[in-house]
Amino acid sequence: MRSTVGEIARLIDGEVVGDPATVITGVCGIREAEEGDITFVANSRYVHLIAGTRASAIITSKELTGAAKPIIRADNPSLAFAKVVSLASPGDLRHPQGIHPAAIIGKGVSLGKSVALGAYVVIEDQAIIGDRTIIYPGCFIGHNSSIGCDCLIYPNVSVRERVSIGSRVIIHSGTVIGSDGFGFIQVDGRHQKIPQAGTVQIEDDVEIGANVAIDRARFDKTVIGKGTKIDNLVQIAHNVIIGENSLIVAQAGISGSTVIGSNVTLAGQAGLVGHISVGDGAIVAAQAGVTKSVPANTVVSGYPARPHSEAKKVNACIQKLPELNSLIRDLEKRLVNLEERFKIK
Questions:
Q1: pTM
Q2: Superfamily (CATH) of domain 104-308
């Protein structure tokens, strides 16, 4: 990469404050940046780092009016910097191309234009793969499943039978879509498996991290809405419905038949019981244990999860427990002394 600050500003539709002829040769985080790098500050909490960075230029928000070195003011610094990183990246990632001779393709499979299948991909009968979809080695696509156009499926992903995946979906390694829901009934002291006859529907523009499990429905379908992003190591149980553009962060677990709205955030290790709902725009904080439905546009935290402002008060009280315990013990001693002194029984 070798560009001037002015050239970069034009690419990201930003406004230069300072010398537009400053030469940029790399991109880096603000703490690690060296001379010649461009970096960014998107959060006002990190503005103080500008004074100490060695970067030659900084992408900032429109709120910053100037600095000791050239800045590019942008409406969305994070997005602008992401564009610069994309331009600077060497682009050496080589996806599989064509159909590898070791791929195994069943009967009646429909492959779109420019589909790429890596070695030892198994596609079972009657499956449909859309145009320009890339499937890395070691993946399994079950019978009667469909995958849309422009999808990217990394190694060792399993897509079970009758699963439907939309277009522009990214699935990372080790993920299983359409595994059986965890359904059992106790008969004579033994756990009898309940058949899971439903399916999974993944809508367009979803990204699913590594080692995620999305269970098929007992009946009907488990649904992941358009544009939703799922981090690594997430468990989504049978008959769960997740709306559009939600964020499900690492190690979150969603129990069966729970309905998650659109634009919801479930932070890391959040756990939700089954048969509840989380309204649109709600935020569930990290490690929250959600035992009842969450209204739209609210923030909950703690266990059991409650409104965040209330949870903070509860946590503050818990932090004072050692001090309160000492106080109570002291009061008990003083009370005993008073009883002895005044002969109170």
A1: 0.86
A2: Hexapeptide repeat proteins (2.160.10.10)
